[in-house]
Protein: Murein L,D-transpeptidase
Organism: Vreelandella nanhaiensis
Amino acid sequence: MRTPTLAELPPSQDGWAEIDTGQQKLRWWQGREVLFECDISSGEAGVGQQEGSGQTPHGWHYVRAAIGAGLPENAVFRGRRWTGEVFSEALGSAHPERDWILTRILWLCGLEKGVNRGGQVDSQRRYIYLHGTPPDQPMGKPASHGCIRMRNQDLLRLFECALPGTPVWLHGSGS
């Protein structure tokens, strides 16, 4: 899949993801039809583009990389690499300080220069992902460190559709 240009967004035929940080929802669109919707959790620090802010960036992005195909559900990632661990309640209790990145990673790259691409607002260099999270973490309210957290089953479904190059629009309700 090739990377779209801003003039081509939203796609009229192809699949794309919409993330509404106001509603804490992700919608998977096929052209102009919503095929599925799920709850997410965006940045607890709110919305923003700045590096080091812990905020979730807005604007048009695309999936730069899809990481983790073939790994078990609850595979634990650090630095975008599988640690060899599979998350369990016992592992979570043994390491309560960890920000768990589980199951799969969809790594985003911004498409809008000065908004989410380049300089101190670059989503790719900020390591903004869609990723799985432990089942005890809340959905439907901001609680992440800037990434988009998802339930594993929702992420696995999205991972099958959102190949590298897939457009992703992050926005707040009404924007």
Summary: Helices lie at 89-94, 152-161. The two ends are 27 Å apart (CA to CA).
